[in-house]
C-alpha cells in the first residue's frame, strides 16, 4: 500500500512545482497539501475503507481546486494551464470512481457524484455515470429523474429525456408518483420553451435541437415490451402523434397542432391517474405544477374536472374545484373571478350538501370578507355567510329529522361569524337552542363556555348565576373544570365588579354543589387551588362562616 501511495505522490510533483512556480502556494502550504493527501490516501486504501473517507477526500479536492482558481484570479494569472486547470476535477473524478467501485450500491453516493459532474460540466463522464448508475439501480426514481433532467437541460435533447422518463416508469411499474410528476413537468417545460420561441422568432425553423453527446439508450435497463402491454392503446397512439407533432417544423403553423394545445401533458396526466387512480394528493400535485406555468387553463380544467368526477363525495376536492378559476379572462378581473367562484361553491353545496362542504364555502367567504374594504360588498358577503350557515342547518334537519346535531366546531364558527357581525342576540339564541337539554351537544363544555362569555357581557348577574348553575348541573365532572373555575371567579370577582355583593351562603351552596358533583371522581387540584386563592385574596374572610376551610382540609 505504501508503494502505491508513493507512486501516486510522485505523479503530482509537476502540479506542485507549477503551484510553487506561479506563487499560488508557498512551500509550507505545499508540504501541508502533501501531508493531507497522504493521510487521505492511507484512509481510502485500507482493507475496509469507510465511505465517509472518500467523501471527505473528494470535498477536500473540490475546495482545494476552488482555492487555486481564486488565488490565480487575485494574482492576475490569466491562464492556469492544462496541468493546473484540469488536475483538480480529474482527481475528484478519480476519488469518486474508486468510491463507487467500493460502494456501488449507495444511491446517494451516485447522486453526489452526478451533482459534481454537472457542476464541473464533465459531460462525457456524466453520460457514462448515468448509464452505469441506472444499470445498477433501475428502481431508483431519483436517478431516472436526474438523467432526464440532464438530457433536457444540458444536452437539449427532449426525445432522450422522454425515453428516460417512459423507461423509468416501466421499470418502476408506473407506481412512482415522483416519476409521473416530473415527466409531466418535463412536457410542460418543453411546451413553454416552444411557445416562447414561436412568439420571439415566428413560426417555423425551431425544431428541437438534439445534442450529439447524450446518454446511450442501448446501455439503459428496460423491461420486455410484453410487460407494458396493459397500456391503453388509444392514449399511446395519441401520445405518439402529439410527440411527433412537437418535433415537426411544418406542424407549428397548424392551429390544430395537438402539441401546442397542451395535448401531451394532458395525456401524461390521464395515463398517470389510470396507474394511480385513488390518490387525491397525487392529482393535486399536477395542479400545483400547472400553477407554475402560464397558459395552463385547459390543463387545469382537466385536472379539476377529474377530481370531482372521480371523487364526488370528497368535500376538499369540490372546494379546490370551486376555488380554482380556470378562465383566463376572469383571472384579470377580481369581480368576475369572485362571482365565478361563488357560483361554483353554490353548485358544489347543492351537489354535496354536507356540513363540511358548506364550511369550506363559509371559509372562502370569510377570507373575502377579511380582505374586503368596501362597506356595501362587506354587507353582501355577511349575508352570504349567514345564509350558508342557515342552509347547512336546514339541510341537516331535513335529512336527519334531528335539528341542531352538527359538530361543536360548526357552531363555534357560526358564533364567531355572528359575533364579528355584531349579532350578539342571534348568537345567544343559537347557543340556547343548541344547549337545550334534549340536545346531544348539551354536554359539550366548550359551547357552554361560549354561552357564558356572551352572558357576562350582555346579561344580568342573576341570569349569569342561573346559567352557571345550568352548565355545572349538565356537564360531567371530568369536563367541567374550566367552567367551575370561571364560576367561582365570577362569585368572588365578577359579581362584586358588577355591583352585586353575594352572600356567603350562596357561595357555600355552590361549593357544596361542586363537591356533590365530583363525588366518586378525582377532584381537580386546579379547581380547589383556584377556589382557595379566591377565598384568601378576593373574599372577605371575616364574613366567612365557621368551618369554611374544612372544605379544603377534607375535600
Q: What would you note in describing this structure?
A:
Helices cover about 70% and strands about 0% of the residues. The model is unreliable at about 205-210, about 225-235 and about 330 (pLDDT under 50). It has helices at about 1-10, 15-20, 25-45, 50-75, 80-100, 105-120, 125-135, 140-155, 160-170, 175-200, 235-245, 265-275, 280-290, 295-310, 315-325, 330, 335-350, 355-370, 375-400, 410-420, 425-435, 445-460, 460-475, 480-495, 505-515, 525-535, 550-555. It is elongated. By secondary structure, it is mostly helical.
Give a quick set of tags describing it.
single chain, 555 residues, mainly alpha, elongated
Summarize the structure.
With 555 residues, the protein is mainly alpha-helical.
Indicate the low-confidence ranges by residue numbers: 204-212, 225-235, 328-332
Give the SSE string. Answer: HHHHHHHHHHHHHHHHHHHHHHHHHHH
Binned, the helix content reads over 70%
Q: What's the pLDDT, averaged over the residues?
A: 78
Classify the beta-strand content into a percent band: under 5%
- Strand runs, count: 0
What's the oligomerization state?
Answer: single chain
Structural class: mainly alpha
Largest sheet: none
Assign an overall shape.
elongated
Q: Which radius of gyration do the C-alpha atoms yield?
A: 37 Å
**Between the first and last Cα atoms, what is the distance in angstroms?**
82 Å
Number of alpha- plus pi-helical segments: 27
Element layout with pairings:
Blueprint: H1 2-11, H2 13-21, H3 27-45, H4 51-75, H5 82-102, H6 107-119, H7 123-136, H8 141-153, H9 158-171, H10 177-201, H11 233-246, H12 263-275, H13 280-290, H14 297-310, H15 315-323, H16 328-331, H17 334-351, H18 355-371, H19 375-400, H20 408-420, H21 424-434, H22 445-458, H23 461-474, H24 481-497, H25 504-517, H26 525-537, H27 550-553
Helix pairs in contact: 3-4, 4-5, 5-6, 6-7, 6-8, 8-9, 8-10, 9-10, 10-12, 10-13, 11-12, 13-14, 14-15, 15-17, 15-18, 17-18, 18-19, 20-21, 21-22, 22-23, 23-24, 24-25, 24-26
Amino acid at each position: 500500500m505504501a508503494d502505491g501511495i508513493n507512486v501516486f505522490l510522485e505523479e503530482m510533483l509537476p502540479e506542485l512545482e507549477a503551484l510553487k512556480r506561479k506563487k499560488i502556494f508557498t512551500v509550507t502550504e505545499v508540504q501541508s497539501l502533501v501531508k493531507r493527501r497522504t493521510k487521505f490516501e492511507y484512509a481510502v486504501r485500507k482493507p475496509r475503507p469507510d465511505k465517509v473517507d472518500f467523501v471527505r477526500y473528494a470535498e477536500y479536492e473540490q475546495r482545494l481546486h476552488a482555492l487555486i482558481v481564486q488565488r490565480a484570479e487575485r494574482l492576475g494569472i490569466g491562464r492556469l494551464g492544462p496541468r493546473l486547470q484540469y488536475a483538480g476535477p480529474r482527481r475528484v473524478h478519480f476519488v469518486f470512481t474508486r468510491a463507487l467501485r467500493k460502494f456501488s450500491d449507495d444511491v446517494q453516493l451516485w447522486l453526489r457524484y452526478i451533482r459534481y459532474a454537472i457542476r464541473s460540466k464533465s459531460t462525457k463522464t456524466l453520460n457514462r455515470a448515468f448509464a452505469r448508475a441506472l444499470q445498477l439501480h433501475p428502481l431508483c426514481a431519483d436517478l431516472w429523474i436526474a438523467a432526464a433532467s440532464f438530457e433536457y437541460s444540458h444536452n437539449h435533447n427532449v426525445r432522450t429525456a422522454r425515453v428516460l422518463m417512459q423507461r423509468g416508469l416501466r421499470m418502476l411499474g408506473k407506481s412512482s408518483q415522483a416519476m409521473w410528476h416530473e415527466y409531466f413537468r418535463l412536457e410542460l417545460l418543453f411546451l413553454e420553451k416552444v411557445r416562447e420561441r414561436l412568439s420571439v422568432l415566428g413560426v417555423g425553423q425551431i425544431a428541437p435541437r438534439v445534442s450529439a453527446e447524450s446518454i446511450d439508450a442501448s446501455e439503459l435497463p428496460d423491461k420486455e415490451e410484453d410487460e407494458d402491454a396493459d397500456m391503453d392503446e388509444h392514449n399511446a397512439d395519441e401520445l405518439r402523434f402529439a410527440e411527433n407533432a412537437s418535433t415537426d417544423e411544418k406542424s407549428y403553423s397548424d392551429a390544430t397542432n395537438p402539441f401546442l394545445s397542451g395535448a401531451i401533458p394532458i395525456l401524461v396526466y390521464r395515463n398517470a391517474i389510470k396507474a394511480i387512480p385513488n390518490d387525491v394528493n397525487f392529482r393535486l400535485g399536477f395542479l400545483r405544477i400547472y400553477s407554475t406555468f402560464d397558459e395552463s387553463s385547459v390543463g387545469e380544467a382537466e385536472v379539476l374536472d377529474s377530481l370531482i368526477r372521480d371523487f364526488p363525495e370528497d368535500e376538499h376536492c369540490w372546494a379546490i374545484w370551486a376555488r380554482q378559476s380556470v378562465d383566463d379572462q376572469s383571472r384579470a378581473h377580481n369581480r368576475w373571478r369572485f362571482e365565478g367562484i361563488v357560483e361554483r361553491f353554490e353548485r358544489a353545496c347543492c351537489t354535496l350538501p354536507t356540513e363540511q362542504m358548506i364550511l369550506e364555502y363559509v371559509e372562502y367567504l370569510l377570507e373575502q370578507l377579511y380582505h374586503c374594504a368596501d362597506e356595501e360588498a362587506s354587507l353582501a358577503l355577511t349575508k352570504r355567510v349567514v345564509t350558508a350557515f342557515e342552509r347547512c342547518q336546514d339541510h341537516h334537519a331535513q335529512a336527519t329529522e334531528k335539528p341542531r346535531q352538527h359538530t361543536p366546531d360548526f357552531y363555534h364558527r357560526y358564533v364567531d361569524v355572528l359575533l364579528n357581525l355584531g349579532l350578539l342576540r342571534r348568537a345567544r339564541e343559537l347557543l340556547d337552542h343548541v344547549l337545550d337539554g334534549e340536545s346531544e351537544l348539551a354536554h359539550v363544555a366548550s359551547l357552554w363556555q361560549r354561552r357564558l362569555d356572551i352572558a357576562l357581557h350582555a346579561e344580568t348577574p342573576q341570569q349569569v348565576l342561573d346559567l352557571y348553575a345550568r352548565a355545572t348541573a349538565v356537564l360531567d365532572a371530568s369536563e367541567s373544570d374550566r367552567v367551575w373555575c370561571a364560576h367561582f371567579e365570577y362569585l368572588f370577582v365578577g359579581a362584586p365588579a358588577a355591583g352585586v355583593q353575594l352572600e356567603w351562603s350562596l357561595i357555600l351552596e355552590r361549593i357544596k354543589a361542586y363537591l356533590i358533583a365530583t363525588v366518586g371522581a378525582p377532584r381537580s387540584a386546579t379547581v380547589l387551588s383556584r377556589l382557595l386563592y379566591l377565598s384568601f385574596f378576593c373574599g372577605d374572610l371575616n364574613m366567612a362562616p365557621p368551618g369554611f376551610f374544612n372544605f379544603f382540609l377534607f375535600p
